[in-house]
Amino acid sequence: MNTLRLFVAKDFLIPASTSWYLADLGEFRGKQELYTQQSPQRLKTLREHALIESAVSSNRIEGVSVDPSRVRDVLVAPKPLFRDRDEEEVRGYRDALKLLHDSAARMPFSEATICALHRLARGQIWDAGQYKEKDGDIIERYPDGRERVRFHPVPAAGTPDAMAGLVDDWQHCLDERWVHPLIAMAAFNLDFLCIHPFRDGNGHVSRLALLLQCYQLGYEVGRYISLERLIEENKDRYYETLEQSSQGWHEGKHDPWPYINYLLSILKMAYREFAERVGELKAPRGSKTDLVLAAIDRFAGEFTMSQLEQTCPGVSRDMIRRVLRERQSANVIECQGRGRRLGGKRRGSTS
Fold first, then answer.
1. Is the whole-model pTM more than 0.70?
2. How does pLDDT run across 310-329, given as a tens digit for each residue?
3. Superfamily of domain 4-279
């Protein structure tokens, strides 16, 4: 039932599309040190922004959100005062990220570490850091009230053994070179989500584990570009490939490549964005200005001030307004509102 176990015999074929991703990511990793020697202030701003952006996006994927006006108070203040459970959970994810960014090289990849990340990300909830005690299916709910069972995870009674086996297989896979480490990393992520070891918060921990594995394998882009934000922006594809690759998982008859390729594509998107922001330095500009400009570029048509604030957590409204005015003066965007409804549209857009 374990995806990593499919690679033990080494009698599998790697799809051509997967090989292309591996080649591209190998090239990006080779340039990584060059990029990280560029503009220290810009890198510092990217790190700070990615930390905030990741905490906000990972929670939004799970339906947990914070008012944009509260983001800085919740995620930047040393000892924030939370207004509700959502704010506590977003801050918890941020704290787990900070632990990874500071200590990834020294952290063992173990069940204890996985449970510690869950404990941080879930805050003060009663079962934080503990495997589930009851069985539960993964349910998809539709706006019209309909429901369907998307997947039957490993039962609670089998979860401790499944997790112990998964972590052991990860280490054996690296030591014995069953498959390329990036393929193994994505396969581990798929298996973790199929086991679904916690009552809640499995998506959070899957993304934290992904970052930890990336850092320990030498792929550092998640420090500067939010993988969680890219996953959120491609959320439909995330759920689509996860469902495709989980069918037949219990019997070991599943096709893991759609989900593996999805995660590799996210990593490639992150490196491409990193290269665009740092790899080729242009005329000097404020780092936060660059973040707002990049956010504007990602909108295909109309956008609002609120959407920009959500895309640029940690950047003040005054800064966003200033950049909008500059873009308007340069005839790049046109303003379509005033006051709290302030927004715009990129010129040339038909939407």
1. yes
2. 677 667 777 788 888 887 87
3. Fido-like domain (1.10.3290.10)
